[in-house]
Structure formats: C-alpha cells, structure tokens
Specification:
- With 172 residues, the protein is mainly α.
- The chain is built from 9 helices and no strands.
- Helix 5 packs antiparallel against helix 6.
- The termini are far apart.
- 37% of the residues are buried.
Length: 172
C-alpha cells in the first residue's frame, strides 16, 4: 500500500504542468517516438508494451513520486513508489538504485544501475550515480571510468559530469 496516496496525485499534477524537471529533458534520457522503443526489442517489457498491456502514465506518476521522495531523502518511501511501476525503464531503475545506495546497500544499487545502462547506455544520470557507488566502495578508478563515459556522451559541461567530477575530487 502506498504510504502517501495524496503525494502521488500532487506530484503528478506538478509533472503535468511542467514544474517537475523531467528526466527526458536531460541528455541520454529515453528517446521520443514509439513508447516501446525504450525497451529492448523482444524483451518481456517490450512485448507487454507493444501489446498495450501497460499503463505508461501511471508508471510515469510513480516515477515522479519516487524521484522527488528520493531527492528529499525519503529513500524507503521512494522505493515503495518506484517498485510499483509495471515497466521499469532506465529512469525507474536508476532511482531504485539511488534510493537503495542511499540506504547503504551499494552492491544491490550497482545492479540496478547496470540494468538501467543495459536499457540505455547513454543514460548519464545512471552513469553518474554508478560512479558515486564506486567511490563509496573505494574504487576511484572505476568512478573515473564512468566520468570518462559521461564526457563521451554529453561532454564536460553537463550536470552529470560536473557532479561526478566534484564527488571524485572531494573523495580522492
């Protein structure tokens, strides 16, 4: 059961009127076009989407609720929302990883980031959080690898690059 059903409606309303910064506006975000293109063709998620068996709008609402809860430090509640999504795209997987990592489970979080990057290797948000997870585990070399991958995909001036670069500088 969702702990804050009113929050879901409020955040959905913010998202609908553009006050929530959608992840799709960032480089490396899911592409437009057919909504099923974000899934690997032939996968269970792609088949479910192609057959009209998913409600993308409710998954988007769950994403926005989970995103804002995670970004405000309410990690367990964020997971309640994110885990309810029918189709876990790269954004949802990334923020499940983010909340999981913030709760202290770095190994499990890294698995979610890896799944997100399997769906979309250009999703730089997942790469930045994966870099932070490597830093938390004491592996600065792997964090720098993710920083280089981000630079290849969106340059050295994008938000994800600057944030991971600052974390690396702070922790090494």
């Amino acid at each position: 059961m969702l702990k804050r059903p009113g929050l879901l409606l409020t955040l959905s309303a913010f998202a609908a009127i553009g006050l929530a910064a959608p992840a799709a506006a960032q480089k490396g975000a899911p592409s437009g076009g057919n909504k099923c293109d974000k899934f690997k063709k032939g996968s269970d998620a792609w088949k479910k989407c192609a057959n009209g068996l998913m409600d993308d709008s409710s998954d988007q609402s769950l994403f926005y609720a989970g995103y804002w809860l995670a970004k405000t430090g309410q990690y367990a509640e964020a997971l309640d929302y994110l885990n309810k999504a029918q189709i876990k795209d790269e954004r949802i997987l990334t923020y499940i990883g983010f909340a999981t990592r913030k709760l202290g489970d770095h190994d499990t979080a890294m698995g979610f980031y890896a799944r997100a990057l399997t769906l979309n290797p250009n999703y730089t948000v997942a790469r930045a959080y994966l870099g932070e997870a490597h830093l938390a585990r004491g592996d600065a070399a792997k964090a720098r690898h993710e920083l280089a991958e981000i630079a290849r995909r969106c340059g050295t001036t994008c938000v994800e690059y600057k944030e991971l670069e600052a974390e690396i500088a702070k922790r090494t």
